[in-house]
């Protein structure tokens, strides 16, 4: 007899048959006596179809009108899912973002939620209805339609769960949970029963695209228990929760994350004077290019080498900017390398366990993987390596931290 | 410097290219200094696509959810047209029915407009913006999305024109105006410059599907000057207006309307007792079958023949009901005839001109068309004839009332 918010993404509602399957799943929860609020995305392909229409008309479509346009996609799904529930004898009612009302700021196409009016939803739940809400959208204070940006349906679900004080927010996807690493690279990758919000953030930002980062942050901030599970198979999925709820005996490392999506830029022979880092990175930041790992080597004769990584898509812009900087600084040379990868070990347990870094570096050295850069945080150690070594490094670390061992030994997944 | 409401139907906005053409037309009016409110339908095919999705899920889709579903079609068009206007440097803003707000009753899928809040629209017009409104939809007092039924976009346009006290409501279609009769039947059919609301109602109900009947009634009730014109060609179209604005010297007849969509039922040998009409038509009315022309012949020996027409699609149901009635009344026989047609001469001028009926009957007699039934109103005379004579009758009457003559002679069209 819990209050559950369930979110189904575009693939899960990609056809009328799949919407019927979702209705069957939701109906099961309702029949078990739970109060259910369902958040849905647009049917897969629909948002792209609408964007193509807009692009056929205007090269850079007006953001306000773009929101009016694409928000129809989720509205269609809410109506169809409500019909599919009615067919099963389940009372249900659809709401779009304006109707709920989900109040956002007025930053069209990337709005942020300010507040949610839960009165209507509670009234419907009390009347025994399933409430079906359009994800990804809201309204500003003037009644203009806004959207939260791609993947915003996850955020809608978490925000609704927080506003309604739901017992759990369930995110249904096409995978059955969060894994110790990508199963396509490591056969022995295992689904985690639990993971902390912080770990999930590190895993998500490294390319495990199970959940939107903003949704995880939001869930962490408001302590909304979040569960990732499969739309297509039964199973408990992975619960994302607060650290203190985890077993103190939990192992050190939650998983191995990685990212092929970065590129490395090195400015060689920079005069080693104060403010040089700002002179190099300032113009990059002004161009809205995000910088990830940064390394400044000590060079010879008052010269230094300055290296950093950016998203691979930003490489052409970043190097164009740096060409100018090299000239201005009288530096020797710019070198770019898109063939790199980032591999990280992630786990809140490393806070209290020394030696994670040494296990990591030793394991990589033993298989001949050269580490180019290192970056650390409280719960993560990342290394930049040559891209061709990525799979080898991930498999090696997965074994080194006993993640792919017998669950009895690894422990963490069943903690 | 007028305030104009323009409505573009599904065919006119059926592709991004066509939406661009509509924007070009609207931009022209705006550049000429007019205030413009545009009402749009869903892109042609879109409403049917949505209905098919609903039917794939639920045999009889829930009306409330049907409205949530199909109302997205018009919303998409408002966004795309606004973008197309922005591209041309015209400031524009889209609104759906809830945003305007167009308040309706709660009769989902066939709601009626109760009131329109014109504050937001006037504010935008004053700021120099074109306002683009989704046709066909509104909201009930609880914020539920409603729709006005098929063709409801015409009604939205007329209601907005009335609420805004617009100088003219222009309905853009794929024909360039209202004709004296169907040009596919009579080569000499001519576009009318003007027609009265009452005449238009008679023409429309006879199958000239240029305008929704409800929209014409609404326009007449609120004295909104209505103009029908082509989306694809330039031209003045046809102005639908109040009678007293027309030239008193206008000719008698506006046009010849017709309808192949009726069928005739005759109950022969009915006992001629009081209440027999009710006994025959009562069960037909209870089955929601609309009856058009009714004729009761005087028969022999206290018996009478009772004839009436219904929509051809209702014939099977109507005859099944009458089979039982024939038995109950002890009537002699039921005869059905789907091969009939109705031809009408329509014109407010016939009120003050005697002899319209005699010209009509004489002209038909001269070409050997037998009249089966006659029905008259203040501004219309209709005859039921054998279907095979339809084209002959329409051409004959079109000539008899000098509608296809040299415009100099016919006069009406240029009145």
What does this molecule look like?
The structure is a homodimer of 415-residue chains. Chain A is built from 13 helices and 20 strands. The first copy, chain A, is α/β, with parallel strands linked by helices. The first copy, chain A, has two domains: 3-245, Carbamate kinase (3-Layer(aba) Sandwich), CATH 3.40.1160.10; 247-402, 2-Layer Sandwich (VC0802-like), CATH 3.30.2130.10. In chain A, the strands form five sheets. An eight-stranded mixed beta sheet of chain A has the order 3-6-2-1-9-11-12-10, with helices on both faces. A four-stranded antiparallel beta sheet of chain A has the order 13-18-20-19, with helices on both faces. In chain A, strands 15-16-14-17 form a four-stranded antiparallel beta sheet, covered by helices on one side. In chain A, strand 15 (291-298) and strand 16 (303-311) form a beta hairpin. In chain A, helix 6 (152-164) packs parallel to helix 8 (213-221) and helix 7 packs antiparallel against helix 8. The A-B interface holds A 16, 19-20, 50, 53-54, 56-59, 61-62, 64-66, 68-69, 71-72, 75-76, 78-80, 82-84, 86-87, 93-94, 96, 98-99, 143-144 and B 16, 19-20, 50, 53-54, 56-59, 61-62, 64-66, 68-69, 71-72, 75-76, 78-80, 82-84, 86-87, 93-94, 96, 98-99, 143-144. Chains A, B: It is an enzyme of class 2 (transferase). Chains A, B: It holds the Pfam family ACT. Chains A, B: Its EC number is 2.7.2.4. Chains A, B: ATP binds at residues 7-10, 173-174, 179, 184, 209-210.
């Amino acid at each position: 007899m819990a209050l559950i918010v369930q979110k189904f993404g575009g693939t899960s509602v990609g056809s009328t048959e799949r919407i019927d399957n979702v209705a069957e799943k939701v109906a099961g929860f309702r029949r078990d006596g739970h109060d259910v609020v369902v958040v849905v995305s647009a049917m897969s392909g629909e948002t792209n179809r609408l964007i193509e229409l807009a692009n056929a008309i205007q090269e850079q479509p007006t953001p306000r009108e773009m929101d009016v346009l694409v928000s129809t996609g989720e509205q269609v799904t809410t109506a169809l899912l409500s019909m599919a529930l009615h067919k099963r004898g389940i009372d249900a009612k659809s709401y779009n973002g304006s109707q709920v009302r989900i109040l956002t700021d007025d930053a069209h196409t990337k709005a942020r939620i300010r507040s949610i009016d839960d009165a209507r939803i509670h009234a419907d739940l009390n009347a025994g209805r399933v409430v079906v809400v359009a994800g990804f959208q809201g309204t500003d204070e003037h009644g203009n339609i806004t959207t939260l940006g791609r993947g915003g349906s996850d955020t809608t679900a978490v925000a609704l769960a927080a506003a309604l004080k739901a017992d759990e927010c369930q995110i249904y996807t096409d995978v059955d949970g969060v894994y110790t690493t990508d199963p396509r690279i490591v056969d022995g990758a295992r689904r985690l029963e639990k993971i902390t919000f912080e770990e999930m953030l590190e895993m998500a930002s490294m390319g495990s695209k199970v959940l939107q980062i903003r949704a995880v942050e939001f869930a962490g901030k408001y302590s909304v228990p979040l569960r990732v599970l499969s739309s297509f198979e039964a199973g408990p999925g992975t619960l994302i929760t607060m650290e203190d709820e985890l077993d103190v005996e939990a192992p050190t490392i939650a998983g191995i994350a990685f990212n092929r999506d970065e590129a490395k830029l090195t400015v060689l022979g920079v005069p080693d004077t104060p403010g040089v880092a700002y002179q190099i990175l300032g113009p990059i930041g002004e161009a809205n290019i995000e910088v990830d790992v940064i390394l400044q080597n000590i060079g010879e004769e008052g010269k230094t080498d300055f290296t950093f990584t950016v998203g691979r898509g930003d490489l052409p812009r970043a190097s164009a900017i740096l060409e100018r900087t090299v000239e201005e600084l009288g530096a020797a040379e710019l070198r770019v390398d898109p063939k790199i990868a980032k591999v990280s070990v992630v786990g809140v347990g490393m806070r209290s366990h020394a030696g994670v870094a040494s296990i990591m570096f030793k394991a990589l050295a033993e298989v001949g993987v050269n580490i180019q850069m290192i970056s650390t945080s409280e719960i993560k150690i990342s290394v930049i390596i040559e891209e061709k070594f990525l799979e080898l490094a991930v498999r090696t670390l997965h074994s080194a931290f006993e993640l792919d061992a017998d669950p009895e030994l690894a422990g963490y997944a069943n903690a």
